[in-house]
């Protein structure tokens, strides 16, 4: 049961189909019972049973993530290949890479997210072993990119305040389609060359600043775009 659950990578359809195949292809014993072993699961699931235990899986996945954050491509690629060699679904690694491309690299090198998503798409479309090539490329890129966690900090700060409510949207930002009213006071940015100073947050939190650009990579240029509160 443990081998079946772990090898199916959380996909219930894979687990049920593999179990059905195991039962149908395994003769019963002298007592009339069918005994499903780890080796039978390995054959039925049509891929090797994962060669590391659950604890080691989480330890290696954690080490992979921390190596991405720590800008060590050698370690990150090693842990990724070790997990894949052990039978872990490579899409799990691709998904973690996407998260860290946004969480740890973010706007310091926004192309990292594009490359990570492309690695997932490539793995889905072409599979193993060739899918490891674009995956490795994306891992190296994420590792070597400048790092910034400003996206995560902005999200957390905004989410914390959003939990409190603050639903009084400024009148000139409200939807008028269902009211047949004219928007009064709204400044259309394109009429001002692309940007005009204007309050967008509700009055009671109008001075809140959630996004704080870092000084790393591309993001160091963002502080000079339009405004700098």
Tell me what you see in this structure.
The structure is a single chain. The chain folds into 3 domains: 43 residues, no CATH class; 91 residues, Zinc Finger, Delta Prime, domain 3 (Up-down Bundle), CATH 1.20.272; 57 residues, no CATH class. The chain contains 9 helices and no strands.
List keywords for this structure.
single chain; 229 residues; mainly alpha; Zinc Finger, Delta Prime, domain 3; 3 domains; 0% strand; elongated
What layout of secondary structure does this protein have?
Layout: H1 2-7, H2 12-25, H3 38-44, H4 54-69, H5 73-85, H6 90-105, H7 111-126, H8 132-144, H9 150-162
* Biggest β-sheet strands, sense, barrel: none
Number of helices: 9
Low-confidence stretches: none
| CATH classification, class level of the largest domain | Mainly Alpha
Total DSSP E strands: 0
Shape: elongated
Content of β-strand = under 5%
Order of helices and strands: HHHHHHHHH
Distance between the termini: 57 Å
**CATH architecture tag of the largest domain:** Up-down Bundle
**What Rg, in angstroms, do the CA atoms define?**
25 Å
How would you briefly describe this protein structure?
The chain has helices spanning 2-7, 12-25, 38-44, 54-69, 73-85, 90-105, 111-126, 132-144, 150-162.
């Amino acid at each position: 049961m443990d081998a079946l659950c772990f090898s199916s990578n959380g996909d219930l359809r894979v687990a049920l189909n593999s179990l059905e195949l195991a039962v149908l292809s395994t003769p019963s014993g002298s007592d009339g019972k069918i005994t499903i072993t780890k080796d039978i699961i390995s054959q039925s699931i049509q891929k090797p049973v994962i060669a590391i235990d659950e604890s080691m899986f989480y330890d290696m996945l954690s080490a992979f993530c921390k190596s991405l954050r720590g800008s060590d491509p050698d370690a990150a690629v090693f842990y990724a290949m070790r997990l894949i060699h052990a039978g872990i679904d490579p899409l799990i690694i691709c998904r973690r890479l996407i998260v860290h491309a946004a969480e740890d690299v973010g706007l310091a090198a926004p192309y990292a997210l594009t490359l990570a998503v492309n690695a997932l798409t490539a793995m889905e479309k072409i599979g193993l072993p060739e899918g490891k090539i674009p995956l490795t490329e994306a891992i190296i890129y994420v590792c070597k990119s400048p790092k910034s966690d400003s996206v995560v900090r902005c999200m957390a700060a905004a989410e914390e305040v959003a939990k409190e409510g603050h639903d009084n949207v400024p009148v000139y930002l409200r939807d008028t389609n269902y009211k047949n009213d004219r928007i009064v006071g709204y400044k259309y940015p394109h009429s001002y060359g692309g940007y005009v100073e204007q309050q967008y947050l509700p009055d009671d939190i109008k001075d809140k600043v959630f996004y704080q650009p870092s000084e790393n990579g591309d993001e160091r240029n963002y502080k000079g775009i339009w405004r700098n509160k």
